[in-house]
Design brief:
Helices cover 30% and strands 21% of the residues. It is an alpha/beta fold and 182 residues long.
Length: 182
């Protein structure tokens, strides 16, 4: 029937930016991106990362965690919580995104940085909600990722150095009702 509007409450708006047209259907896994410093002193982030994972797991019935560069820092903590020592069965669903350079000659810093900024495009395409553990002020590829998220109007939370022990925060993620032409 042309012109008849169907009201659907099974859609969840992915972003709040006016140009965002991506919706999630209820029942799909919510993709939560958690990224932070690649510090070798990752123990200072363990409690916060565990709180974020536990909080998101309790808030969403189906969740897929996404992180990058799991060789050290925040990514290593997430991978360690997901996989047991023998990598037999994951504790939760997770995607690891990484980029490795195997170079004969070193790249200029700007080109090296742009390669890592390209990972941000991948995270932005995959993620629905973002938890960023940042330096004050955010620098480098973390600053690039934050700007991209804000431009798209996606829900995000930042955790600065003084907030590491404060626990997980909840970004705004609104359920919208959408009218559609049938």
């Amino acid at each position: 029937m042309a012109g008849r509007k169907r009201r659907s409450s099974n859609l969840v708006l992915r972003g709040t930016h006016p140009n965002t047209r991506i919706f999630l259907y209820r029942g799909c896994k919510l993709k939560v991106v958690i990224v932070g410093p690649r510090d070798k002193e990752e123990l200072i982030y363990v409690q916060l990362v565990n709180d974020i994972i536990d909080n998101c797991s309790s808030r969403y019935s189906k969740v897929l965690f996404i992180t990058k560069s799991c060789d050290q820092g925040v990514g290593k903590i997430i991978r360690g919580k997901c996989l047991d020592k023998h990598f037999k069965k994951p504790a939760f669903d997770m995607i690891e995104v990484s980029l490795r350079h195997y170079l004969i000659n070193e790249l200029p810093q700007s080109e090296f940085q742009s390669n890592f900024d390209s990972l941000n495009s991948t995270l932005l395409e995959l993620g629905d909600e973002f938890h960023l553990i940042v330096e004050e002020p955010p620098r480098g590829s973390m600053s690039d990722l934050l700007l991209r998220i804000q431009k798209e109007g996606l829900p995000y939370v930042t955790y600065g150095p003084t907030e590491l022990k404060a626990g997980a925060k909840q970004p705004e993620f609104q359920v919208k009702e959408q009218s559609e032409e049938v």
